[in-house]
Amino acid sequence: MESLVRVFALSFLYVTAKSSHFVSHDFEGNNTLNDTNNGIVKTIVVDQTGNGHFKTIQPAIDSVPSGNNHWIRIFIRRGIYNEKVIIPKDKQKILMEAHKASEAIIQYNHAGESIASATFRLLAEFFVAINITFKNTYNKEKPKTLYRDIKIAPAIVIAADKAAFFGCQFVSLQDTVGDLVGRHYFQQCHITGIIDFIWGNGQSLYQSCMINVLGVTTSTETEKETVDGGAIAGFITAQGRESEQDTSGFVFNGCSIVGVGKAFLGRAYRGYSRVLFCNTNMADVIVPQGWDAWSYPGLV
Predict the structure, then answer these.
(1) I want to staple 292 with a disulfide (CB 3.0 to 4.6 A). Which of 97, 104, 254, 267 is the partner?
(2) What region does 111 belong to: left with phi over 0, alpha with psi -120 to 50, or beta?
(3) Is 175 known to be catalytic?
(4) What EC identifiers does the entry list (predicted)?
(5) Of 161, 179, 196, 292, which residue is the catalytic one?
(6) Which candidate in 161, 175, 179, 292 is catalytic?
């Protein structure tokens, strides 16, 4: 297991080496970027009050030149930004940063589709986010939610290689983080959800992150995952590795799992699903079965 963790970690050294950026942080959620080679050529400020270059985030992204090959920082000042945001494939090397994740929130209310409903969609390589909250507000965040009221509502969908997130928060109930494809690194992030809330076919390392499991209830007792108290168990992960040759998988190292609900560590989204939890503190939220084979009994 430790060797596989090292393999995943080495994948992300390439991001750091290429960008020449290193992030320092503390446990208050205050992350700062140390630009060792003065690699950032421009800073764009987003400020809702008008004291910046743009009042909203998407126009700031649109202003980045197509085919960009130099790091551009988009600094987001305090505010709740109610908008869908897309970083297209040709807008590489963007760094989005704020002082605190609790003060810079990107949110939108849309549900029903695993990709199109996402508040934030990343399609470009070489992306870094520091101290940003990504949130889908369709499913209201509360301790317990009726199962039939929950819909697919991603906070973020990551469909590009070489992306890193430091001190960020991701909030929804179902499909919160779409870790679709590519190599991704999450450090000291906070991820909230109930059902499949970290899912996809990414090759990703979650380092020192907090996983917050909310509760889900049902009006019937017919679901096979029913647990005591009329509650049913959710699923933290739904990883989509499709073959033995597929290098994808999720590694959670040094993380904490907390919450008021119950959950499986994950269920197999594809037949070769691969997820590792190591050096992780698990509160009394994980059901004894641990894992669910979903549609692949006997394979995973």
Answers:
(1) 267
(2) beta
(3) yes
(4) 3.1.1.11
(5) 196
(6) 175
